[in-house]
Amino acid sequence: MKKVLITGGTVFVSRYIAEYYVAKGCDVYVLNRNTKEQPKGVTLIQADRFHLGEMLRSYHFDLVIDTAYSAEGTDCLLDALGHYEDYVFISSSAVYPEYEAQPFKEESVLAENKYWGKYGTDKIEAEKTLLRRYPYAYILRPPYLYGPLNNVYREAFVFDCALNDRRFYMPKNGEMKLQFFHIEDLCGFIDILLEKKPQNHIFNVGNLNAVSVRQWVEMCYSIVGKEAKIRNVYEKVEQRQYFSFYDYEYYLDVSKQHELMPNEKDLYTGLKESFIWYKDNQEKVNKKPFFEFIDRNF
Questions:
Q1: Domains in the chain: how many in total?
Q2: Which pLDDT value is given to residue 250?
Q3: Which domain range does residue 80 map to?
Q4: Can you give the three-state secondary structure of 78-126, one letter per residue?
Q5: 21, exposed or middle or buried, with CB in 10 Å at 0-12, 13-18, 19+?
Q6: Structural domain contains residue 295
């Protein structure tokens, strides 16, 4: 039985990964402070990753999956670990500066992105620290992750608009492109990495094709069983006040990923899975006051 350590394990990405590997029959350990409900079937290691001491020294893990947000967090975990085989770090596409040529490739320049700021630069430093200390680790850089357990108010916001028969306020003409990746595909790609052990250790991951905001919104409404009534917003209003994404279009070159994993979950199917989960878990999503802003300003 493969022994897997997952840092976090209580919110969206790390929680889904934990549940995924439990379902595969792995012996799954999660490392967190035990302030939230734990996934079923895991073994909890209750600790602050910045104060681990010798707590992990006696364990042998076949796989470590980490979502560290800083170089310090990476160092603290590596200092504490005893024996481990494979290491996967979930980084972010936020490591690429907005001014760099697109699509972003794994070899593109890494620097501060004005939209993501410190989050992106901290991920860069975490990557550098990990590769310096364990060059055999795999680093994954996803775009917008989605799927069941997503606590970020993205597709859930559009579902709410549809459920409440609200008009959708579309930024500009709705042609801005978004690139997504289903959380199950992320897990599936980790499996492929562990099986095939490619020489490349840094991968952009994501759907092969981007989708326009309009297409995405219309999909979400259709899944709810409604037709989107759209009002285009051309006023000079900060987009993030009434919409889930920045006014920033970017996309990743994911050709290296697709050489290893040619198939991906269809976006409509993935959004439908998201809605099925959301209907019974609305309280688990961190909702933003988009409706209040819309009602005051439009």
A1: 2
A2: 97
A3: 3-146+182-204
A4: HHHCCEEEEEEEECCHHHCCCCCCCCECCCCCCCCCCCCCHHHHHHHHH
A5: buried
A6: no
